[in-house]
Prior knowledge:
A: 13 strands, 50% helix, B: Rossmann fold
Amino acid sequence: MEIRPILSALMRSKVSMILIGLQVALTLAIVCNALFIIHERLQRMDRPSGMNEADTFIISSTGFGQGFDVKSSQQADLALLRSLPGVADATSAITVPMSQSGWSTGVSLKPNQTTDTASTALYLVDAHGLSAYGVQLVEGRDFKPEEVQFKTFNERVVPTSVIVTRALAQRLFPDGDALGKQVYYDNEGPASTIIGIVERLQTPWLDSDFIDNSTLAPVLFPYGNATRYVVRAEPGRRDEVIKVVEQKLQEANPSRILSKVRTLEQVRAEGYANDRAMAIILGAVIFALLAITALGIVGMASFWVAQRTRQIGTRRALGATRFDILRYFQLENFIITSIGLVVGGVLAYALSLWLMSAFQAPRLPWHYVPVGFLCLWTLGQLAVLGPALRASRVPPAVATRSV
Amino acid sequence: MLKMTHLQKVYRTHLIETYALRDFSINVAEGEFVAVTGPSGSGKTTFLNIAGLLEEFTGGSYLLDGVDVHGLDDNGRSRLRNEKIGFIFQGFNLIPDLNLFDNVDVPLRYRGYGAAERKRRIEEALGRVGLSSRMKHYPSELSGGQQQRVAIARALAGSPRLLLADEPTGNLDSLMARGVMELLEEINGQGTTIVMVTHDPELAARAQRNVHVIDGQVTDFDAEASLRQSSSAAAADTAIA
Ligand SMILES: Nc1ncnc2c1ncn2[C@@H]1O[C@H](COP(=O)(O)OP(=O)(O)OP(=O)(O)O)[C@@H](O)[C@H]1O
Ligand SMILES: [Mg+2]
């Protein structure tokens, strides 16, 4: 192979080589890290909430007028909702996963513990809660209707039975025997008994460091005159059910304001809006960088081909085949790209270290860089192909025709 | 060595046809030193390009060292060029970014020789033109005459049978031109056939035979004779002198 003469010729036109090499290096460093961040965000967005998201929606109702009684209105609404065709189940609830607002509390194994054993989100639901959220019970039992307590702002209500997520159970009782155990949500007690364990239910906060620790408690707690309902439709019937629900709730009690329905899919989209935006922006950055690098290579190679037309003709006259000329330019690009990639590999890890120290970002996995090498080698070879083909078509007669 | 009969070359653009060569016949014997002269635009370069397989012709026939080149594809022509022909250009056509060693190396790499063989040939060729000591220099560090010597070394390194030179002294002053001419004569003396286009009547006179081209045709009065007795090229030389 003619690597050595190409390299020594390149050394005589360092500026253009350094320009393209540097461009390749920066592209590799940025693209590797950007791809990794995108991957991280996508993984984050891929986390299951534990709910049936496809069929579920939430709607809030705020009553007004002197005769409005939130407790009886809530019970009437729930009965109505559950009777509607297409509704699988419904519950009254304060919050849902991914909504970024809700309640959290500490859980302890003993009363008056100085530090809590775990943090948990609190989901206050009635006996239809598990079914309406569509979470999967893996141990123990569901709530019974008679366990449900009704709470107002002034009352202190501590649930006697709770259902916790598997992650929380594991955190509280690492030996795996959480079912039936007593825990303390209130320092003074009384204790609550874990009567069931669900597979998964995320807290409402996507950034929390205890995202899988949730507790369901059988408590109904309207916010003043406001209640929120979680309604799960039968599979595939969500959109049709939404229309009926809005209409029937309004008819049943005109002295209230209904919020706009939000599907769990909308809640998820809003909750992850920043992550999605970040992924899209970085994707655009990657695309732009690759495009600029490719165009830079095309431009530089085209310039070189034009500049070296007579040299190409001379090489042809001296016996180079078209393929020899094509290979020359491909090889030249390969060499420049490789030099750029080596520098870029170091830059990529350096950038990663900086992101780690400045933003607590995780370390760039090592394999991103070799994969980036392959991509940019391919990009370079494809970008230079057009100019190289043009070079290979330079007729040998230019050796004598142009002076 | 080189035999063209009724060769024709037409350049066609969408507007005009230019007959660069018409009914062009020439026979160059092995070991001859032929000088080609003629006015500008008469077709000298065209003839040399066709002889060197840089261009195709549009009619007639051409045998290079007994091989009919008409049916050859581009790769075949490249290979034949590489093996049989050495080119010397008016503008030297050295590659400015390569040192002398690498410049002479260019055709040898296309030949596919191994590194040791190439090194041996490069050193020998540069030695023949008296530039062994400048192997690591770049063309821009040499005088025109020296550059043309490198180009001659490059043309010689592959041991071609035929050397084609298009005004090899056209860019040189008369002293350097004489040096190059002497080198060519020496090379010819060692058996390489040379066809040289030149505007310089003095240099042309030193060749064994002169071929005069006018309007795409050989007008040399003794061309007929040389066709008949091409082996005794020396006779033609004296006839001109
Ligand atoms: N690529 C081309 N397209 C069209 N016409 C051409 C082309 N190359 C050469 N010609 C024409 O062919 C004719 C012969 O050209 P050629 O270059 O062979 O002349 P020359 O004898 O070498 O002239 P000079 O002494 O000036 O170098 C000229 O009329 C020229 O204009
Ligand atoms: Mg000419």
